[in-house]
Amino acid sequence: HTVYRNYQRLTLQETPGSVPPGRLPRHRDVIVLWDLIDCARPGDEIEVTGVYAHTLDAAPGAMRGFPAFSTVIEANHVARRADEFAAVRLTDEDRRAIRALARDDGVGRRIIASIAPSIFGHEQIKTALALALFGGVAKDIGGKLRTRGDINVLLLGDPGTAKSQFLKFVEATAHRAVFTTGQGASAVGLTASVRKDAVTREWTLEGGALVLADRGVCLIDEFDKMGDADRTSIHEAMEQQTISVSKAGIVTTLQARCAVVAAANPIGGRYRPALPFAQNVELTEPIISRFDVLCVVRDEVDPVADEMLGRFVVQSHAAAHPLAEATAGDDDADAGTNAAVDAGAGAIPQGLLRKYIMYARESVHPRMSDRFSDRIAHLYGELRRESLATGSVPITVRHIEAMVRLAEAHARMHLRDYVRGDDVDVAIRVALEGFIAAQKISVKRALRRKFAKYLYARRDHFELLCYLLGKLVQEKLTFHALKHAGAIPDSVDVSIPDFEAQAAALGVIDCADFYASSLFQRQMFSVDAARAVIVKVL
């Protein structure tokens, strides 16, 4: 008698993150039967237990006139990897190194300095990409409404400003990344395609780049070269993070929970600051509003910055040369390169940074309290008013959510379970920098003056900390004069824990930048780390 049973053929492919550079991902067909049907969707990461067997291919055999066999896996068990970071397991030693790194107060600056350290400057882009790699926290409200936690970033700028190099660095650092270009990407290649199976002659579903990048990062270079119809297809994937398919009798929804980092060139190749953002790029308002951070990169002529850039590039080439270690002057080149990367913070090795990002995304879910809501709401009202007056980038409710996501990502970068005031400051500054950079040059200066309190908060902290430190020094001097009959000492020591406790009471959490600032040194202060004191020479 004939037994009819459920039959499904899956194509198992290597995860994009585990494929060595320059090699295509290997794939193998898997046959599932009975109750294993529909246990996995395109883009899922699965573990298959089964029998490696051969099967007769009827169609090629009939064409060639002799039997042709192919190999398949007959599945006995299929397990979905619920753990999004299952591809790389962290050892106890890795966890100890990550926790030791997180205890450093300046870990945020070190992570930003470690984003593409071979590229000079562009601190705003590096901050935005670092926050996008960590991402915010996705909210699922009662199982009915889902708000995305991934941060979308658009890099728009002149040629030769290292946009593609930034994307390549993110591809090498993110735990799962899919890289594509706008010229070679179609709507079907980005979302999902339907094709007829050669054996069963039935329609099958194949996931595109956004589906394969689920719980990772999708990188799109030359974003402006995509056709309008192709670009419209990713609207749903960028906000709802799903892809709805209704083709050839297949009606389904695929998950595309990924951050989108896109790079585009302006119309005519050069960004014209006299025109607003919308007239500089061939992108519609719906797609622009879906990006949380806009980074405008301009290739401006600045003799001082150009000389520093030229020195940095030459030193980088000298230090990276295969024979550099054998030369006598390579130490100077290395020192110059490292100094140019970041004067105050040492870059983190890329392997450790990758593991740190995995650990943070897996274990840390920061929460924002209600006390910051008035601040963000007030800023949103001001931005709406300015957006209406200038008519450039439309400000929508998505920008409020973007600031919340950026603040959560900055807290996650420091492995904190709650969002602090400085996290909100960084989020507001990153969002504002993108908004102001997208304005016409005539409006930009007025906006910078208006929002100066948000953009230059750290610089104002230096003056405040200097005043606080001077007050503590004066108290020490008064005490010493009363104790020693008016004698004045050569130097005064102020305890670092006492100073930082008083600074924290004023809302300044991290004082490391102040210690490295020129204002601190000009006032004849120095830090004695061994005794944990600040020394003031009189």
In short:
The protein is of the alpha/beta class.
Keywords:
5-stranded parallel beta sheet; 538 residues; alpha/beta; 23 helices; 4-stranded mixed beta sheet
How many distinct beta strands?
A: 18
Question: What is the share of helical residues?
Answer: 40-55%
Strand line-up in the sheet with most strands: 8-11-14-7-15
**Multimerization state:** single chain
Structural class computed from helices and strand pairing: alpha/beta
Question: Could you walk me through the main structural features you see in this protein, from its secondary elements to its overall organization?
Answer:
The structure is a single chain. Helix content is 43%, strand content 20%. The protein has 23 helices and 18 strands. It has a five-stranded parallel β-sheet. Strands 1-2-4-3 form a four-stranded mixed β-sheet. It has a three-stranded antiparallel β-sheet with strand order 16-18-17. Helix 12 crosses helix 13 and helix 16 packs across helix 17. About 4% of the residues have low confidence.
Topology record:
Elements: E1 7-13, E2 27-33, E3 46-57, H1 58-64, E4 68-80, H2 92-102, H3 107-114, H4 123-134, E5 139-141, E6 145-147, E7 153-157, H5 163-173, E8 177-181, H6 187-190, E9 192-196, E10 203-207, H7 209-212, E11 217-221, H8 228-232, H9 235-239, E12 242-247, E13 250-255, E14 259-264, H10 277-280, H11 285-289, E15 293-297, H12 303-320, H13 330-341, H14 350-363, H15 373-390, H16 397-413, H17 421-437, H18 441-450, H19 452-455, H20 457-483, E16 491-495, H21 496-505, H22 512-516, H23 518-522, E17 525-528, E18 533-537
Parallel strand pairs: 2-4, 7-14, 7-15, 8-11, 11-14
Antiparallel strand pairs: 1-2, 3-4, 5-6, 9-10, 12-13, 16-18, 17-18
Helix pairs in contact: 2-14, 4-16, 12-13, 16-17
